[in-house]
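Hi U.,

Before I forget, here's the chain from the pilot set. I'm dumping it here mostly so it's searchable later in email.
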Amino acid sequence: MKTLVAALLLLATPVLGDVQGQGREPVSRAASRVNWTSASALNALFKDKASVKRFLNEIANGGDTSAPEFIAELYDHRFVDLNGDGWFELVALVGGQRLSTALEVVFQTPGGAPPADRLATTHDGFVMRELPGFDVGDLNAVLRDLDHDGTYKIVMPQLLGGFEGAARPQATIPEVFSWNGGDYAKVSARYPEFYRDEVLPRIERQLQRLEALPAAGDAVDRANRRAQREKYAREIAEARKRVPQK
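Structure:
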């Protein structure tokens, strides 16, 4: 009986090791051999969220698989040619050791990595650039073809002022960024019609729905509505600054 148990334990050991990630090739090493101009090749390697999350954490931690996870949650990801050069970038909407969501763009650097800064990490021929955001639902809201030319712009809500605590509504404004092959460039001023036709009407509708609610029943509800009303007022004022004057 003891011999049988020992044999079963020996058979189980490699399986447990594989589950824990021991003995597996780093995803970044496999990714470095993939053709990043081929969507089918990339999707064949990155078959699920787990593999994408492993890849992001390998880049973020410089290949140290024993380090704590920097990317705690992967909400959405996509392979997109952001600047029309024929090479795909991995675009991931993530949550981690931070209060807000963030966008991570991972790309190869055949011409050398960009200068290191707090928003970039490099490993195994890849660079990961981070763009902080706030209250982002999915990549459909982030990747927008605002020029109707087949190239995506990145729309990320940014806080108006500092973070005021989780219990208080946070005023935000969507900022428009373009990808220049190695970094984000804010280009919001080029899209006044976006703020006039989409952003401002949306916030005004939200305020109208708030004002149409029945009277608040208690002091807490009244305080919450007042804070929400102040949030919308700040957002409307900021959006109007970006709308072309008649």
